[in-house]
């Protein structure tokens, strides 16, 4: 039996001053998972967060929370809390008073407030900081205060609007681990907004990739990285080699002037396609042993690997991540497995991809049964 979604967007469009920010968006959010809304600035991810929080209303469509339409329900009556990019803490209040603020507004009794604040601070590893001034806290500590203030109200969904963006790289990495572990311990739904691909891949159960107000693809980090459905997703999620090709038939594709076995099907014969191969999936070998030959144009040392750029005989650029050092100007061979080749149809949407895959799998199972 499928779990009922805690949040459902039904054909939601949002416009500001006649400009469409979200365009006919539909998706579902399950309870107890870590979701990430990922995309470049202006793609609509923060607008989705604001719609869920109740800070704005949809122009068209409906938002459901546990099966109930909440389009017009005020923000303070929704079972969600938000951690903002700047944390929005009260600088004149200490840690305890910041965390207790929402409970005081709700007229909770002092013993109950004390118990809830202590519990929330324990969850974020800030026990003993109750009387500390906000001005005396580090960036990571302030973020944890903001999270404690949010979870003390026991929301069913916690919304996080790029809360790590102001932190330095080391602290940001530490907080990624802390947030992921906190979500697991709390067991509530996190919806996290970021434009950082590595952050999204590291933290999420499921990622929604947005561009120009449209969800381009949804899936697990592995699905998004290994099986991008179009050029935008492939290019935005990590680094990719994307070259033109031609599908000869199922499991056989042509690019870079040669024919290669692959694992993709469901395309038409002789259909123009785009080929994606991740740079870490390319192995450097001798020219006579590689599946293709590349002339090395540049090489940079990145600490854990060399970043090598070369060009094949058809003029396609190839980015390679390798622990092997090569000489600029040298000819090298590149080897790769059929599984490393990902074939994309030009301009395919997620719905079209799903239909093609379903039709292909249906034809395969039908063929097997005859």
From TrEMBL:
The keyword Manganese does not apply. One of its GO terms (molecular function) is ABC-type putrescine transporter activity. Transmembrane segments: none annotated. GO terms for cellular component: ATP-binding cassette (ABC) transporter complex. This is ABC transporter ATP-binding protein. It comes from Cohnella pontilimi. InterPro entries: AAA+_ATPase (IPR003593), ABC_SmlMolc_Importer (IPR050093), ABC_transporter-like_ATP-bd (IPR003439), ABC_transporter-like_CS (IPR017871), Mo/tungstate-bd_C_term_dom (IPR008995), P-loop_NTPase (IPR027417), PotA_ATP-bd (IPR017879), Transp-assoc_OB_typ2 (IPR013611). Keywords: ATP-binding, Cell membrane, Membrane, Nucleotide-binding, Translocase, Transport. Residues 7-237 form the ABC transporter domain. SUPFAM superfamilies: MOP-like, P-loop containing nucleoside triphosphate hydrolases. The lineage of its organism: Bacteria, Bacillati, Bacillota, Bacilli, Bacillales. It holds the Pfam family TOBE_2.
């Amino acid at each position: 039996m499928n779990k009922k979604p805690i949040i459902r967007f039904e054909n939601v469009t949002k416009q500001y001053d006649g400009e469409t920010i979200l365009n006919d968006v539909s998706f579902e959010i399950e309870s107890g998972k870590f979701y990430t809304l990922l995309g470049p600035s202006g793609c609509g991810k923060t607008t989705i967060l604001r719609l869920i929080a109740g800070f704005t209303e949809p122009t068209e469509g409906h938002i459901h929370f546990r099966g109930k339409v909440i389009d017009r329900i005020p923000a303070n009556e929704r079972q969600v809390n938000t951690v903002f990019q700047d944390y929005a803490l009260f600088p004149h209040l200490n840690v305890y008073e910041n965390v207790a603020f929402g409970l005081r507004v709700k007229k909770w009794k002092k013993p109950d407030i004390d118990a809830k604040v202590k519990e929330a601070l324990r969850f974020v590893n800030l026990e003993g900081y109750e009387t500390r001034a906000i001005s005396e806290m580090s960036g990571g500590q302030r973020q944890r205060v903001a999270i404690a203030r949010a979870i003390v109200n026991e929301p069913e969904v916690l919304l996080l609007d790029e809360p790590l963006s102001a932190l330095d790289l080391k602290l940001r990495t530490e907080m990624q681990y802390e947030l992921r572990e906190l979500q697991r311990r709390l067991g509530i739904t996190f919806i996290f907004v970021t434009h950082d691909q590595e952050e999204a891949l590291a933290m999420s159960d499921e990622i929604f990739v947005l561009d120009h107000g449209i969800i381009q693809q949804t899936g697990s980090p592995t699905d998004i990285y290994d099986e991008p459905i179009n050029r935008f997703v492939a290019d935005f999620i990590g680094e990719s080699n994307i070259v033109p090709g031609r599908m000869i038939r199922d499991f056989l594709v042509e690019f870079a002037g040669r024919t290669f076995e692959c694992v993709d099907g469901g395309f038409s014969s002789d259909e123009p396609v785009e080929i994606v191969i991740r740079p870490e999936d390319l192995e450097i070998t001798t020219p006579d042993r590689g599946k293709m030959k590349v002339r090395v144009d540049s090489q940079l040392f990145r600490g854990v690997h060399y970043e090598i750029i070369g060009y094949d005989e058809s003029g396609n650029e190839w980015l390679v991540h390798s622990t092997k050092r090569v000489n600029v100007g040298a000819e090298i061979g590149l080897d790769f497995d059929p599984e490393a080749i990902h074939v994309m149809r030009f301009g395919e949407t997620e719905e079209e991809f799903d239909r093609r895959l379903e039709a292909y799998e249906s034809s395969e199972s039908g063929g097997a049964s005859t």
